[in-house]
Amino acid sequence: MSGKPWLTVKYWSRRLRKARNAAASRLFDTRFGRRLLIENIGPRVLSMTVDAGDHLMTFSPSDYIGRKVFRKGHFEREAVDRLIVILRERGLLRKDTTLLEIGANIGTQTVYFALSGAYAHIVSIEPDPRNFPLLALNIRQNRLEEKVRLVNCAAGEIEGEIDFFLNSANHGKSSAIRQSPRDTKISVPVKPVSEILAELSVDSDSIGLVWMDIEGYEPVACRSMQSLLARRVPLYMEFTPLFYGPGGTKAFIDMLAGFYEHCLVVFEDREDELKVRDLPGSFDQYNVLFLP
Question: What is the pLDDT of residue 51?
Answer without folding.
Answer: 95
